[in-house]
UniProtKB/TrEMBL annotation:
Keywords: Decarboxylase, Lyase, Pyrimidine biosynthesis. The active site is at 61 (proton donor). This is Orotidine 5'-phosphate decarboxylase. The gene is pyrF. Homodimer. Belongs to the OMP decarboxylase family. Type 1 subfamily. InterPro entries: Aldolase_TIM, OMPdecase, OMPdecase_AS, OMPdecase_bac, OMPdeCOase_dom, RibuloseP-bd_barrel. It comes from Mesobacillus maritimus. Transmembrane segments: none annotated.
Length: 238
């Protein structure tokens, strides 16, 4: 994986995607389709984005009993996306089943999509984790524990904030992917996110890929915002 900037397409219908992509006609993008868009438009939206030549992270965060997740991944594998995910809280057996499902579902000769696991959502603070999930350790310890479980299950990496990415990289090496949402250029417009970081900080921590939604999709000029965040992420001197 070549350190992509993944744009989160948190839209409710295809037409919004079509309008959003118009200024990006010269860019080959890595796009994230999440629950809102996929539940509204179904597999057709994946097909549409693929035909436009972009890579896709299908962010449905599967979390269910192992047999159900295996079946779900078998179906998702047929869509030909580049990355899928589960919640690490589902456990090691569930994550192993996710991989089995993907292996069953992919077409012959096609590369299996990257499969990664969410550790602690970037909208979760340490206080929330300890008081609501009753996890009596630090947030970093919890994220590291879930990363260890994910690694044991054979997945390709984790979703974590850039604040934990350096720790994970020091334990598991750069071959284990760290995909980080909660990116806020200049630290602005945090919204519901709790563990945020700038693109520059993410790069310095060795993050494998950043996920950026509202700072691009809600910007007055999305293409300009994308290019500016990409420059900071790639360390291009302005
Ligand atoms: O821990 C997580 C896991 C997934 N996300 C997703 O990333 C984007 C972030 O969007 P912003 O608008 O840049 O906040 C969004 O689609 C989330 O579902 C995450 O934020 N944190």
């Amino acid at each position: 994986m070549n350190n992509p900037l993944i744009i989160a397409l948190d839209f409710s219908e295809k037409q919004q995607v079509v309008d959003f992509l118009k200024p990006f006609k010269d860019e080959k993008l890595f796009l994230k389709v999440g629950m809102e868009l996929f539940y509204a438009e179904g597999p057709a939206i994946v097909q549409f984005i693929k035909e436009a030549g972009h890579e896709i992270f299908l962010d449905l965060k599967l979390h269910d009993i192992p047999n159900t997740v295996k079946g779900g991944m078998k179906s998702l594998a047929r869509l030909g996306v580049d990355m899928v995910n589960v919640h690490a809280a589902g456990g090691r057996e569930m994550m192993e089943s996710a991989l089995e499902g993907l292996d069953c579902g992919i077409k012959a000769g096609v590369k299996r999509p990257y499969c990664i696991a969410v550790t602690q959502l970037t909208s979760t603070s340490e206080n929330q984790m300890q008081c609501e999930q009753l996890i009596p350790v630090s947030l970093q310890e919890s994220v590291l524990h879930y990363a260890e479980l994910t690694k044991q299950a054979g997945l390709d990496g984790v979703v974590c904030s850039a604040q934990e990415a350096g720790l994970i990289r020091s334990h598991f090496g750069k071959g284990f992917l760290t995909v980080s949402p909660g990116i806020r250029p200049g630290g602005n417009g945090i919204g519901d996110q709790k563990r945020v970081a700038t693109p520059q900080f993410a790069r310095e921590q060795g993050v494998s890929a950043i996920v950026v939604g509202r700072p691009i999709t809600q910007a007055e000029h999305p293409l300009e915002s994308y290019l500016s965040i990409k420059q900071e992420w790639e360390g291009v001197l302005l």
